[in-house]
Q: What sequence folds into this?
């Protein structure tokens, strides 16, 4: 019986033309399909990335993602549904939703600076450049 080995991946809905829908932090990387974010984590035992989580909450096309520079378990996603969602990868859940007045531009990162209250982490305010 022959073995099949995956050598590439391009999920349905992937946006290869948009550089803002792929991000990495430490031993994780994430990329977006149209409505879902795929999180991969390095498996040190086999020295390869494995699917860790699929996060889906946006109702319209995801246009940008960014890892938190202060906490490797958090990342933000922006979408044409006018929401910026803050995710906790370790717990695989949404920790905050920020409603925006207008949709983000696909050519400009959706927010320059966000003030986020990290109630579940440090109970303090921090600035997050994305």
A:
């Amino acid at each position: 019986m022959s073995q099949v080995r995956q050598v590439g991946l391009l999920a349905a809905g992937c946006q290869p033309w948009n550089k803002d829908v792929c991000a990495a932090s430490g031993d994780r990387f994430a990329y977006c399909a149209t409505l879902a974010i795929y999180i991969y984590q390095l498996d040190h035992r086999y020295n390869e990335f494995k699917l860790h989580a699929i996060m889906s909450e946006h109702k319209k096309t995801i246009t940008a993602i960014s890892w938190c520079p202060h906490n490797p378990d958090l990342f933000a996603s922006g979408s044409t549904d006018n929401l910026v969602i803050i995710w906790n990868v370790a717990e695989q859940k949404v920790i905050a939703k920020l409603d925006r007045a207008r949709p983000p531009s696909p050519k400009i990162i959706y927010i320059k600076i966000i003030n986020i209250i990290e109630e579940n982490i440090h109970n303090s305010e921090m600035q997050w450049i994305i």
Summary: Residues 2 and 76 are 41 Å apart (CA to CA). DSSP finds no helices and ten strands in the chain. The first strand starts at residue 22 and ends at 25.
